[in-house]
Amino acid sequence: MAMAAGEAAGGLVPACVLGIDLGTTSVKAALLIAAEQGQVVAESCSRETQAYTSSLEAGPQGMEQDVRRIIRALNECLAALPQQQLQRVSHIGIAGQMHGIVFWKRDKGCKWTESGAGLTFEPEEVSHLVTWQDARCSPTFLSSLPLPQSHISLATGYGCATIYWYLKKSPGFLKSYDAAGTIHDYVVAMLCDLKKPLMSVQNAASWGYFNSRNKSWNTDILKESGFPIHLLPEVGDPGSIAGRTVSAWHGIPKGAKVGIALGDFQCSVYSCLTERTDAVLNISTSAQLSISMPLGFQPPDMPDPSSAVTYFPYFNGGYLAVAASLNGGNVLATFVDMVAQWTEELGLQVQESAIYTKIIKAALAQTSSKLSIHPTIFGERHVPEQLASVSNIAVSDLSLGHVTRALCRGIVENLCSMLPVQCLMETGVRRILGSGSALARNEVLRQEVERVFPFPVVYGKDVDAAMGAAMVMFHRK
Questions:
Q1: How far apart are CA 237 and CA 316, in angstroms?
Q2: Tell me: the pLDDT tens digits for 245-259?
Q3: Minimal CA–CA distance to 317: which of 300, 294, 285?
Q4: pTM of whole model > 0.70?
Q5: pLDDT, tens only, 354-365
Q6: Helix/strand/coil (H, E, C) string of the chain?
Q7: Per-residue pLDDT, 133
């Protein structure tokens, strides 16, 4: 029988922890090992999933991914990691895209096969993954559903809303399956051969109809409306062990401990949040500002749809307050695209990458701008009908530099209006950890962050859900 990692050679070989993130567009894996200063990433790898596929039932409103392609990307990712380190893995932490749902048949969820890299599993009787971006549940449809007893408002793309949609629009679909979970719950269930899927409080809250105060589904409300509650997973605490690997997997020993699947957002924050007095600011395609709520904080019983702040279950019974804006780097990308289109209409050709570099350079030359841009071209979850606007237009502030400067300030001010400085001060925030691709490549955006927030800002703290998932397991080891 294979020994668990770390037992070999009398425990002299330091064990590794594997972290996996099953993201919206890619899969990432990171191997962590112990070091004097805590833990370090020994190896990491990522692969694009290219998993988007058409939806048979929901048509263009559907946003689905082929689970086989996601698992193929995961297998490719692990096959690229060094075998000798995988053989030392004692714990596996798995995070992934929240809210989404995949259905499977319990006794036919996957089949294990021998491959070049040892044993791997392939999905068998498994549905597509209906992702968090799915738009099949219209506002009218959502308003016809029973009111959840939860602090989180129900939205399209949430697991329970999707089950209701199938129940009402395509009931035959549900009869083919007897288990459901997020994509990362599915992977944990397959690795540990769980007879009933197990889900963390973090993922359960992201599905809707879950009361995170008493850690239970709204079974009474759901039963009354004929909801198939047998599809709801068991729920456990984030950081707990879901089971052990039932087979060697890519050289990882049989019997390695597998953590309950976690939310990618919480793991991203966990990867860089070292002090309770830090706030995490991430500006990539969209933008988020998160803070740790004081110990003992409990969210309100009922959701407030007009509130810009959502409370996400974190670790050890704690919560993160999150202002999640739909407007971040995507606003700048749209502005660059607009400039490119105008240039083309004038009969000139300029590469978009060249435009981006030039507008940032122009904005750096303009330290201020009276122009005021409210940049919400994508609306916001709490005010979906809100569009963007420009005001305070003066002849002196019409240059490309002035407009870009005002746009960058607008992005930061919009996020700050969702979770104001006063609120950050009251919760004891002392510094901001800045991360994300848009912040990394745009000095003007960084200047505006420093102007808007009266705290020191530290950059280069990478947020990484795979690393966060591994760190959670590392700290529980």
A1: 8
A2: 999 999 999 999 999
A3: 294
A4: yes
A5: 999 999 999 999
A6: CCCCCCCHHHHCCCCEEEEEEECCCEEEEEEEEEECCEEEEEEEEEEECCCEECCCCCHHHCCEECHHHHHHHHHHHHHCCCHHHHCCEEEEEEEECCCCEEEECHHHCEEEEEECCEEEEEECCECCEECCCCCCCCHHHHHCCCCCCCCCCCCCCCHHHHHHHHHHHCHHHHHCCCEEECHHHHHHHHHHCCCCCEEEHHHHHHHCCEECCCCEECHHHHHHCCCCHHHCCEEECCCCEEEECCCCECCECCCCEEECCEEHHHHHHHCCCCCCCEEEEEECCCEEEEEECCCCCCCCCCCCCCCCEEEEECCCCCEEEEEEECCCHHHHHHHHHHHHHHHHHCCCCCCHHHHHHHHHHHHHCCCCCCCEEECCCCCECCECCCCCEEECCCHHHCCHHHHHHHHHHHHHHHHHHHCCHHHHHHCCCCEEEEECHHHHHCHHHHHHHHHHCCCCEEECCCCCHHHHHHHHHHHHC
A7: 87
- With beta carbons less than 8 A apart as the criterion, state whether 201 and 212 touch: yes
Q: Quick one: pLDDT at residue 5?
A: 44
pLDDT of res. 13? 54
With a cut of 50, list the residues of the chain below it in pLDDT. Answer: 1-12
Contact 111, 146 (CB under 8 A): no
First CA to last CA across the chain, in angstroms?
Answer: 23
What is the residue whose two structure tokens read 């689905």?
64
